Amino acid sequence: MLVTIADVSVLPLVFTSGWASGINAYAVVLLFGVFGATGLTDEVPESLQRTDVLVVAGVLFLCEAVADKIPYVDSIWDSVHTVIRPIAGAVVGALLAGQNGSLPELAAGAVGGSTALLSHFVKAGTRMAVNTSPEPFSNVALSLAEDLGVAAIVTFAVFHPVAAAVVAAVLLALGLAILVFLAQRIRRFLRRRSQRREERRLADVGGRVRDRPPSGSGDGDGSEHF
């Protein structure tokens, strides 16, 4: 069945795609591209359906799927994507608006980018809090929930954009509220990471001092004994 929302504003779909991009931008590009390429919807621009775009998005999605489940590696990955995810949300939003024609591309880019930035902060902050726990299973469970949630809501948005946008807005609001409650654990994580960096720095300095030959060593004090 071909899905079209040309008779309504594309804003709900832009908002949902922005929220999802802040969590997993590569999954959003991959899903929209597949939906468009298979003819499931006509709202996806040709640029997202290109084979090279789908291949790159698929490879990067697999990389994120692995990195996102490893404690501390996930936070490093999130730090790198602080710029990438909002840009992806803005670009996808602008492309969707350009394809639909019911919303200026600049406005759509602003909505998609800002929503992606907010959801990215929720994801990154939640991961910092989870990383204060010594066991790794919570990271895997949370990552799987995020992947499945993004896939489900993006798919739902293709068929029911307004309802999906409401769900995304509720999840975003809940995430921001939870982030406030987790602020103490996040500060603990940042403090612990700073301490580890300082310990490594001191260990490197101590190692260089131990390896340095003591002063005055050599051929002796210059005197001869008979």
The radius of gyration is: 25 Å
The structure class reads mainly alpha
Low-confidence stretches: 1-8, 222-226
The 3D shape can be described as: elongated
> Can you write the helix and strand succession as a string?
HHHHHHH
The percent range for strand residues is under 5%
- H/I helix tally: 7
Count of beta strands: 0
Tell me what the structure shows.
The protein is mainly alpha-helical and 226 residues long. The chain has seven helices and no strands. The longest helix is centred in the C-terminal third of the chain and has 29 residues. The chain starts with 10 loop residues before the first helix and ends in a 15-residue tail after the last helix. 37% of the residues are buried. The N terminus and C terminus are likely disordered.
Task: Offer a quick outline of the entry.
By secondary structure, the chain is an all-alpha fold.
Topology:
Layout: H1 11-37, H2 51-67, H3 73-100, H4 105-130, H5 137-159, H6 161-181, H7 183-211
Helix pairs in contact: 1-2, 1-3, 1-4, 1-5, 1-6, 3-4, 4-6, 4-7, 5-6
Which terms would index this structure?
mainly alpha, disordered N terminus
